[in-house]
Specification:
eight-stranded mixed beta sheet, Rossmann fold, 348 residues, 15 helices, globular, 48% helix, alpha/beta
Length: 348
């Protein structure tokens, strides 16, 4: 017979091994459960367009850029005015970001124009594709030509990703002399103009830098993950409604746009690489400039961002909105945004 003391030692020896085997078995069961769940998710169709999104889509048109379909809206508004304004949206959303200020703009401008950049919203989303700020600027120039506005002075309003596209257009117009767009004015809003004050979200950093994880993460990102991420860049008192969150997510999922997010996010690296080109265009231009800024923005935080902007871009005027407004000022405070913009546009 085994000595009791010896049996205790055997038990002590076998327990960690048994625990390890049990843990392995547990992970196998988890894997067997998760694999079919992931498979099901990857085949979930995109959400249906809401009535509001369907109306926006129905009011738009499509033109072709290098064989790709680009969605845009072009509304004719104020009689007796020849002024044109073009709106450039941010990442990861679409031209629908401008829906809350669209009608008031049509009461002031002869034409109000917005597009979905390539890879966004209702535009085509090719993959694989090397998305770049340079290409998006060419998309805008092509739209201007398509609409017969190449000889027309235009006003630009931009946000986030659209800010950098606007700076490339400004560079082409002012410094390179090859631009096909003539500026009348430029109004920027919360965007990562300066890499040194820009703080991308964790998921953005992983997607732009991890070629191994990115294809997996873009497929697994779902509405709840998106809602948490986008909600974090809105103020606590200016959160989108559930319907608005779903409209944003629907625009991303349209044409499998979630699968190109990692490619589009290379714009963050492009901003760093071409900082001198784009910041240089901003600091040297004589085009009337204005910045509308939501100070609660975690991506371009206050006061670091706005202090640097005012130091470097001394010809620009600035509006800092209420302290609870964050990264999407045109959605969080459309009245404040419009008041600031109209004050700017009437100042020159």
């Amino acid at each position: 017979m085994l000595d009791p003391k010896h049996w205790t030692k055997v038990q002590e020896y076998e327990s960690p091994l048994t625990a390890e085997l049990n843990m392995r078995e547990w992970w196998i069961h988890v894997g067997l459960i998760c694999i079919p769940l992931v498979a099901v998710y990857l085949h979930i169709p995109p959400p249906q367009l809401s009535a509001a999104l369907q109306k926006w889509y129905g009011a738009g048109e499509v033109f072709h850029f290098r064989g790709r379909e680009i969605f845009y809206r072009d509304s004719f508004g104020a009689l007796g005015s020849s002024d044109v304004v073009i709106l450039l949206h941010g990442f990861p959303t679409s031209s629908y970001d401008w829906n809350k200020i669209w009608d008031p703009l049509t009461q002031r401008f002869h034409r109000v124009i917005a597009l979905d950049f390539l890879g966004f919203g209702f535009s085509e989303k090719p993959r694989p594709h090397r998305y770049s700020i340079f290409e998006q600027a060419s998309v805008v120039e092509a739209l201007v030509a398509h609409l017969g506005l190449s000889n027309q002075r235009v006003n630009l309003i931009s946000h986030d990703y659209g800010d950098t596209v606007a700076l490339e257009l400004l560079y082409r117009s002012d410094l390179n002399r090859t631009g096909h767009l003539t500026f009348n004015s430029l109004c920027l809003s919360n965007g990562g103009l300066f890499p040194e004050t820009h703080h991308p979200r964790l998921l953005q950093t992983i997607l732009k830098d991890s070629s191994f994880l990115a294809p997996f993460l873009t497929r697994l990102t779902n509405f709840m993950i998106f809602q948490k991420g986008i909600g974090d860049v809105f103020g606590p008192y200016t959160q989108p409604t559930d319907a608005e969150f779903w409209d944003m997510w629907t625009g991303i999922r349209y044409n499998d746009g979630n699968l190109v997010m990692d490619s589009i996010l290379q714009y963050i690296n492009q901003r760093l690489k071409h900082r001198e080109r784009w910041v240089g265009a901003l600091t040297s231009t004589f085009v009337p400039l204005h910045m509308i800024y939501g100070p609660l923005d975690p991506v371009n935080p206050h006061p670091q961002f706005i202090r640097l902007y005012q130091k470097l871009v001394q010809r620009s005027t600035v509006t800092i909105l209420d302290e609870h407004i964050s990264h999407y000022p045109q959605l969080e405070d459309p009245t404040g945004f419009l008041n600031a913009y109209f004050n700017f546009i009437h100042s020159f």
